């Protein structure tokens, strides 16, 4: 019983430490003329990502991605923040539901590369 309690305490103590040291990347995307720029985003796997989407169009748009499990209305002339939890390797398509023919993009999650991480930390949107 005492051993089980000690194990539980050790596990609970490690959880906050993991969340403090996990990497986080900010990526800025612009929606203009019903196009996402950049439309192709490369990120390392198992990394938290914050997408700041700036809608420069005079119309509303709806960011939608089944693979990312995210839907969010993008207000005109505003920046909307979307949080992505760490993702496994793969391709995740996103679209603008109100203009699906033109407002399209993809998040590509791959192996972490030192050059890629350096570029993202320097403020570049893609690597």
From TrEMBL:
UniProt-listed InterPro entries: Cupredoxin (IPR008972), EfeO_Cupredoxin (IPR028096)
Domain EfeO-type cupredoxin-like, first and last residues per copy: 21-109
Domain of life: Bacteria
Keyword DNA-binding attached: no
Alphabetized UniProt keyword annotations: Signal
Region forming the signal peptide: 1-19
Keyword Iron-sulfur appears in the UniProt entry: no
Protein name: Cupredoxin domain-containing protein
């Amino acid at each position: 019983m005492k051993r089980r309690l000690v194990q539980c305490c050790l596990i609970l103590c490690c959880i906050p430490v993991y969340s403090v040291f996990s990497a986080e990347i900010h990526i800025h995307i612009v929606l203009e003329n019903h196009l996402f720029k950049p439309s192709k985003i490369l990120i390392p796997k198992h990394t938290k990502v914050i997408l700041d989407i700036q809608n420069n169009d005079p119309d509303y748009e709806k960011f939608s991605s089944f693979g990312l499990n995210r839907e969010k209305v993008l207000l005109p002339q505003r920046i909307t923040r979307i949080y992505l939890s760490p993702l496994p390797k793969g391709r995740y398509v996103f679209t603008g539901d109100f203009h699906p023919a033109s407002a399209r993009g993809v998040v590509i999650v791959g192996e972490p590369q030192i050059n890629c991480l350096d570029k993202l930390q320097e403020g570049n949107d893609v690597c």
